[in-house]
Amino acid sequence: MSQEAQNVLVIGGVACGPKTAARVKRLQPKANVTLIEKTGNVSFGACGIPYYLEGHCESVDTLYETPVGVKRTPDFFQKTKGFTVQVNTEAQSIDRENKQVKVKDHSSGQERDMAYDKLVLATGSRPFVPPIPGIDKQNIWSIKSSEDAEGVAASIDPPEGKKAVIIGAGLIGVEMAEALKQRGMEVTIVEMFDQIMPQILDYDLATLAAKHIRSNGVNLALGEQVVGFTGQDKVTGVQTKNTTFDADVVIVSVGVRPNDELAREAGLECHPKGGIRINCHGQTSDPEIYAGGDCAINDSILSYLCAELYVPLGSTANKHGRVIANHICGQTTPFSGVMSTSICKVFGMTLGRTGISHKQAENLGYQVESALWTGPDKPHYMPDGGPISIKLVASKRNRALLGAQVLGTGDAAKRLDVATAAVHFKANLDDVGAIDISYAPPFSPPIDPLITASHVLTNKMDGLANGLLPMQAKEIMDSGKDIILLDVRTPQEFAAMRMPDDRVVHIPLGQLRERLQELPKDKDILAFCKVSMRGYEAQRVLQDAGFDRVWFIEGGLVGWPFEVEMSG
Amino acid sequence: MSQEAQNVLVIGGVACGPKTAARVKRLQPKANVTLIEKTGNVSFGACGIPYYLEGHCESVDTLYETPVGVKRTPDFFQKTKGFTVQVNTEAQSIDRENKQVKVKDHSSGQERDMAYDKLVLATGSRPFVPPIPGIDKQNIWSIKSSEDAEGVAASIDPPEGKKAVIIGAGLIGVEMAEALKQRGMEVTIVEMFDQIMPQILDYDLATLAAKHIRSNGVNLALGEQVVGFTGQDKVTGVQTKNTTFDADVVIVSVGVRPNDELAREAGLECHPKGGIRINCHGQTSDPEIYAGGDCAINDSILSYLCAELYVPLGSTANKHGRVIANHICGQTTPFSGVMSTSICKVFGMTLGRTGISHKQAENLGYQVESALWTGPDKPHYMPDGGPISIKLVASKRNRALLGAQVLGTGDAAKRLDVATAAVHFKANLDDVGAIDISYAPPFSPPIDPLITASHVLTNKMDGLANGLLPMQAKEIMDSGKDIILLDVRTPQEFAAMRMPDDRVVHIPLGQLRERLQELPKDKDILAFCKVSMRGYEAQRVLQDAGFDRVWFIEGGLVGWPFEVEMSG
Question: How are strands ordered across the β-sheet holding B219-222?
Fold first, then answer.
């Protein structure tokens, strides 16, 4: 480590920037560390905007604060972390040869040069604004800055009965839908794809999640392409190819784009689709210049993906910051990359994904198998349990776990993060089944749902479990074939909720061995129950009795993303 | 796989037994599978007893039921799983040469022989009843069977104002304490060791947990050895070496012992301290005889432990059952062993451990380092966050993660189980810090607590963070040395809660760089804050200014297991 004080210049004051600057000062107290930020504020927690709008914070200032309520100002950073912050200061260009950055002070309008030994680009991202005519009308907002947050808050006040249209059903879109619905608004999400969260969930889980969101009163308009906006100055509606949705306020949440222009203009290598390329130490193609956070594109830890991943998240930005600061200070701690883990909560339901989806795995040419398990997250005698669904995706070749998707009002997040660790450590399905996941009734049934899910997929690969994903079952049902839908639940359960199809035959599992003669051997039989543990048992019972065209529907009725018939 | 139908005999009807039997029938529908159970009932969920007694179930029958409310009777197993269950049937001895088991039918009193091709011992465990005079008095209960559950329920009815004494502050002891306290009883836990959960937590976390349990009105009598009981037929008190605790009911929860006598008498290899020895397929020293669940002793997945572990848990019993059934049916799926993961919830606080504790690691001769991190489980603007503490234990030699302990009213269980996966996959601290744990505000701050904890320990090993575990700090404080306790919190925080020690100096972190002259360089300075992120910053600031006798107290005031002074 050099004894001479380094000049470290950091551009960008949200997550990666302050993290890098603070860590450099801790590692090398003598280093001269300056952070410049083009806006007037630093360390804004944009992830909190939906929760601010839902009413969890008194003021948007909360999103600038430390956990004990101290606002993160330039003075705060100087006094507690020991580095200098210059706000309203925007980098104009990088002179790599002379190692200096031309900056403009927006307060004075003056330009000046700032020298660096190490430069850190943490310029972040900006919301993508699609070039739709009229998108610059008033009350059309992206969700990124505190001005956005306050603008939305002002434009919906008072919210009761007002109409919000959200364009894009990704993470921010569904979080915003919940926030605005909770404030009493009429909310519609317009999504171009035929499912929500197309980048995150497979169609089956996305459709199950959509059912939940709709049941909470949000209107989902899927497969609708926005072509324009009505209204004079202020927006009054969102026009799609098919219809128009009235709107008092419009939220545009169709993704973000990396702020990589400064790097591109300086000749640093960037991804053709956007994002500064970095190595595992956060170095760009110029080793004296680092980049991290939303402006950079990540290597994936998933060797099977063989692709750079643009997954802009505060968690990754902070990891980058630490790795960069360490490397600047002579401590090499390479970053292994991201795994595309995503999560959100909407109306009490957790949705998440790690690794790759079934669809992605197929697109990569994998021989892929996946299975959906649905069931309670705790023993039935615990009062606060809830159902969760887990879909595991694995390679048929070596049973490597490629990804996991979760959903549910139960504790789905824990199972997602254990799966994340399993994918990180290149586990196969047998490994997952062996993890000594903690067990006590307030936390899980004796066999943890993640372990059960690994068993179902293992059984499927071993040819024991003839499981059909809900989509596969639906396709067979919709083909009009003369099949049997065998419901093996108890009479009480059958009375309360049913599959709305006149091909349903109801034989409780406990009676199945005695009533085999009621079933034909020359028709396809699709067995199911509430969550399909009994559906699987029924398949095994029937096969044992010589039926060879038997399947069960994975996830059962709780995991069924389509219509069910309820009584009473 | 043999085409001839195997005779599989399973002894024991709680967890491992039924799991093995059901799985064998699914894998080999033609196999003759019989399960015998010495009591009149099968599949009792003993883990649910505290929750039944707390009032979560209408009847103890709930603990025999499937998640959809079907009672698991012999008929249930025959009809849905296809194997035969004979209750009130107790194995007397095993004739290994002739491959048959002598059994006694308790209904008829008759004995008979049952032949087997494969025998599975799933004989479970029984509560350890210490040989204390008077322990056979009425209203002294162990917690194992449905009779115990109903007995306790009857003996406390009505519970309000009655006194319960619980002997043993392990998992079941604290779960029972909560259950009986919630029912309105006066509850005392008597524990021989000077901490709760001596097998699970280090002293510091145990003491923090004890503070929480006491604050919920349970009396903890630590370091008290029980020597007798008062009362004629019915117990009226528990006598220790020092005092007597009045008691209307006594719960004895000082551990369980494996039911390995049948195996021992048959000459199967057992551990000297109890437990049938099995290999990774569940085979005993006789390859035709398997054992699993609470009667068996496990290999540990932790190569660094080099020891067999007796950790009787329903989760492990089910894993055993699957591995045994697979092996019986020609599918080899070796079990990698257990990691000693334990968890419980008491008055809303989660307590858990995986791998080994600091104390255990030291006893094994490791150069061990550990660090305690305390902080919120979610961003401060989320309404439902809570504090959690994470203590990580690692080898100084190679930074291998050896274990993790967690505690908190926030979501500590998730961090425990990710750590469990990390230990399973032999992660080092840098690996842990790189896991792409899911991030969104309803689930975690941008840097997940587990990742932060790994950073603290890494910083400590790198000599950056001069952290002291609470116990180490307390020892220095108690030594009477002329030290400075530097509280760097805000004035508002200081007004609300303080360390009760007249050596405290209060300088908010933001003023520290300007007020350095108020601190002496010739005294040891122990800095702290609410959770000690700022304590760590203060240590760095002071070192930077030439103070070389500076430490910070890990976990801060939230993680401080001893007395603090509150205002108002």
Answer: B140-141, B249-252, B163-167, B186-191, B219-222
Contact pairs from chain A to chain B, CB under 8 Å:
293
Of the residues B309, B323, B332, B438, the best mutation for testing chain A's interface (the one with the most A CB atoms within 10 Å of its CB) is B438
Residue with tokens 């180490």: B472
Banded pLDDT at B1 (limits 50, 70, 90): very low
8 A C-beta contact, residue B297 and residue B276? yes
Signed CA dihedral, A77, A82, A86, A91: sign only:
negative
As given in the structure block, the two tokens for residue A541 are: 């019972």
Cis peptide before B158 (omega within 30 of 0): yes
Q: Which helix or strand (DSSP H or E) is residue B390 part of? A: strand B387-395
Q: Which chain B residue lies closest to A455 (C-alpha atoms)?
A: B322
Query: Residue B488: which residues within 8 A CB-CB, separation 6 or more?
Result: B507, B508, B509, B512, B527, B528, B529, B534, B535, B537, B538
Contact predicate A469/A370, CB 8 Å: yes
Please state the pTM of the whole predicted model. Answer: 0.96
Quote the distance between the C-alpha of residue A520 and its chain's center.
45
Of B27, B68, B512, the CB nearest to A493: B68
Question: Which residue among B29, B339, B444 sits closest to A436, beta carbon to beta carbon?
Answer: B339
A342 neighbourhood in chain B, CB within 8 Å: 438, 440
Longest dimension (CA), chain B: 90
Chain B closest CA to A44's CA: distance in Å?
Answer: 12
Shortest CA gap A547–chain B (Å) = 13
Q: List the catalytic residues of A.
A: 47
CA gap A220, A190 in Å, rounded:
6
B188 pLDDT higher than 60: yes
ipTM of the predicted structure?
0.96
Cross-chain Cβ contact A490/B436 below 8 Å = no
Q: pLDDT value at position B38?
A: 96
Q: How far is A98 from chain B (nearest CA, A)?
A: 31
Distance, CA of B176 to CA of B164 (rounded, Å): 10
How many other CB atoms are there within 10 angstroms of residue B211's CB atom?
16
The whole-angstrom separation of Cα A563 and Cα B510 is 58
Chain A residue at shortest CA distance from B313: A439
For B65, which residue in chain A has the nearest alpha carbon?
A380
Query: Cβ–Cβ of A534/B80 closer than 8 Å?
Result: yes
| Bond preceding residue A470 cis, omega within 30 of 0 | no
Mean pLDDT, range A223-232, rounded to an integer: 97
- Burial code (b: 16+ CB inside 10 Å, e: under 16) for A420-444 equals bbbbbbebbbebbbbbbbbbbbbbb
**For residue A402, is pLDDT > 80?**
yes
Contacts with A350 from chain B: Cβ below 8 Å: 443
Most confident of A120-129, A331-340, A352-361: A120-129
Read off the pLDDT of residues A60-119 as tens digits, 9 standing for 90 and up: 999 988 888 888 999 999 998 999 999 999 999 999 999 999 999 999 999 999 999 999
Q: Specify whether the CB–CB gap between B128 and B257 falls below 8 A.
A: yes
| CB spacing of A80 vs B510 below 8 angstroms | yes
Minimal-distance CA residue of chain A relative to B422: A421
What are the tokens at A373? 């398990």
Spell out which residues of chain A touch residue B534, defining contact as CB-CB under 8 Å: 80
- By residue count, chain B amounts to 568
Q: Model confidence over A115-160: pLDDT tens digits?
A: 999 999 999 999 999 999 999 999 999 999 999 999 999 999 999 9
The span from the CA of B175 to the CA of B190, in Å, is: 14
Query: CB of B334 within 8 A of CB of A431?
Result: no
Whether A420 and B431 lie within 8 Å, measured CB to CB: no
How far apart (Å, rounded) are the C-alpha atoms in residues A406 and A197?
13
- Termini Cα distance of chain B: 73
**End-to-end distance of chain A based on CA atoms, in angstroms?**
73
